[in-house]
Amino acid sequence: MRILLAEDSAFYSRMISNYVTHWGLDLVSAKDGKEAWKILRNSDGPRLALLDWMLPEIEGVELCRRLRTGAERVGYVYTILITSKNQQHEMLEAMDAGADDFLSKPFDPAELKARIQVGKRIVELQQKLVSVNDALRVAASHDPLTQIWNRGEVLAFLGRELARARRGASQVGVVMVDVDHFKKINDELGHHAGDLVLQEMAKRFSRSLREYDGVGRYGGEEFLLVIPGCDLTTTTRRANEIRTSLLIEPLVSAAGAGAVTVSMGVAVAEPEETVEDLLRRTDEALYRAKRGGRNRVESSDRVLTAPQS
Question: 225: domain range?
Answer without folding.
Answer: 151-299
